[in-house]
Amino acid sequence: MKIAVVGTGYVGLVTGTCFAEVGIEVTCIDIDINKIENLKKGILPIYEPGLEEMVVRNYKEKRLSFSSDIGQSIQNCEVVFIAVGTPPGEDGSADLKYVLAVAKSIGENMNTHLVIATKSTVPVGTATKVKIEVQNALDKRGSDLSFDVASNPEFLKEGAAINDFLKPDRIIVGIDNDNAESIMKRLYKPFLLNGHPIIFMDIPSAEMTKYAANAMLATKISFMNDVANLCEIMGADVNSVRRGIGSDPRIGHKFIYAGIGYGGSCFPKDVKALAKTAIEHGYQMRILEAVESVNDNQKSVLFNKIKKHYGDLKGKHFAMWGLAFKPKTDDMREAPSLVIIEKLLAEGATVTAYDPVAMHEAQKMVKDSIQFADNQYDALKNADGLIVVTEWPEFRSPKFEEIAETLNQKVIFDGRNIYEPDEMNTFGFNYYCIGRKSV
Prior knowledge:
Blueprint: E1 2-6, H1 10-21, E2 25-29, H2 33-40, H3 51-60, E3 64-67, H4 70-73, E4 79-82, H5 97-109, E5 114-118, H6 126-141, E6 147-151, H7 161-166, E7 171-174, H8 178-187, H9 189-192, E8 198-201, H10 203-234, H11 238-246, H12 267-280, H13 286-298, H14 301-310, E9 317-321, H15 336-346, E10 350-354, H16 359-366, E11 371-372, E12 385-388, H17 400-406, E13 411-414, H18 421-426, E14 430-432
Parallel strand pairs: 1-2, 1-4, 2-3, 4-5, 5-6, 7-8, 9-10, 9-12, 10-11, 12-13, 13-14
Helix pairs in contact: 1-3, 5-6, 10-12, 10-13, 12-13
């Protein structure tokens, strides 16, 4: 089976590579020629554990190829995936210009029947717009070629995307006819052999499923952060509360860890887009509006603790451990670290940061406004306090004696609750965390 994936960002590259891994002939397409040439050399535009090795292996074995020529690359394919970005517009709605541009190009170049499937996260009704763009392009060519559209949203967690794709909890496919269902079922057969469920539904429901899933997970995070803030006021421990409610199978343990807000490429964008879609159809999603508001406020919680501890921050210098919005990724989109850095700099403070993989991406955003360290302990030099932003494994059991000896003041602001207050007390730290008693 031969397929193409348009877009070599996070979703497109993982999708194409994982299909190649199970023996399907895949061409990944991108208009960025430099990105394509780098991929041919094994240089990836993103960090994802295990992906580089898999790309190099499948490219070498000629199951995976890369091209900037969509016209040539989609010839004689059975399925073409659209996996380009849908960035939020100024009003929060998803910008579909890249998706529709790809649809138009497919219509201009296809030479056989295709299933055109959207992998990009798109609002309900996008498939109809894609169908119109493709048909208009075919009409201009005077072509009577037929095609089907499908919605096949991704459910990939950054840092675990390979496993999520190869061993999916579920595969969601929105179709409107039996032919498209048959082709998509054949495409996913290697995954179905291992018992992973595929769920076929109508296209609007598939488009909505992706948004609803991310909105629910974002809601759990914001709810728990709201509870954490109340725990601090009332003298409760949010970690104990989390264990207590997480043992209820109706709630579960996932996505109920208190922290400093969610970030990344999905939750912020998708919550905004779903709320905006509702408004466009005359409905207000009040819970999602609250979710977004809580999350925006939560990103300032750790800074507020810093400000309260020191008062005047002018001339203060801080070490920051972690920059990415979560571990095992270099994704800096909507990262809480950016909010904290911005607020510290505005108050006249300076920052030296360390992140195992995200410093290159962070530098694109913060430029030369902060310094970067070669390792986590070098970041501590001349710092008046340590700010822990991302819970990378190497930060979980550090050398506390070295931290205490290196810092100018023994103060730790833990935005991910990875340390224990009693242990911090034994080392003499002033320790601030989220939703628990500080020492």
